[in-house]
Design brief:
The protein has 206 residues and is mainly α. The protein has 9 helices and no strands. Helices cover 68% and strands 0% of the residues.
Length: 206
Amino acid sequence: MPERTEGPGLRERKKEETRRTLREAAGRLFAERGFAQTTVADIAAGANVSERTFFRYFDSKEALLLPDGIELFARIEEAFLARPDDDSPLEAACGAITDAVSYFASSSLTALAHPLGEIREQAREGLSRQFQQFEARLTALVLERLPAGAPDADLQAAVIANCALGAARAVLRTLRDRRTAGVPVEPDRLLPQAFTFLTMIGATPS
């Protein structure tokens, strides 16, 4: 009787599972040890695969960061589009980023909360380009949410999008600085706090 072979659907699911397992192992190790101290061998062992298998999916450990960034931004966009209609554009942008935090916390992007010197220039440049591209996309989404006739709508959308993403980057910088200083960090608390500060800016004192 001929041996049954796996269908393409099953093979693709197994490949995606291996890719996800590698990302999760990398995220865990980056958070525990730091980016520079984590090797490809460590990540492969953490995912229970060989180094050879690792290189079938990623060219380097830096390459782990970029796909996660793309997926993270896609999740933020999806969350933004799902926000309630009565959310203001700023509330929608901040809420969408907050909704994506659970995914961020388990991805290899946790490396970004460690000192930037640990991440090679090539990876930093790639991530910077992704943030710039996503700022443009989020600006377009915010613009669609602004009421008709809003003054300087293009500028207003750009300010809202950049402020929301800037607050998220400020959290990453604060986490890095506190880790460097040996100060305990509370990543789950800092992002909502940053958005609270953002909404307070320009508010009329009581």
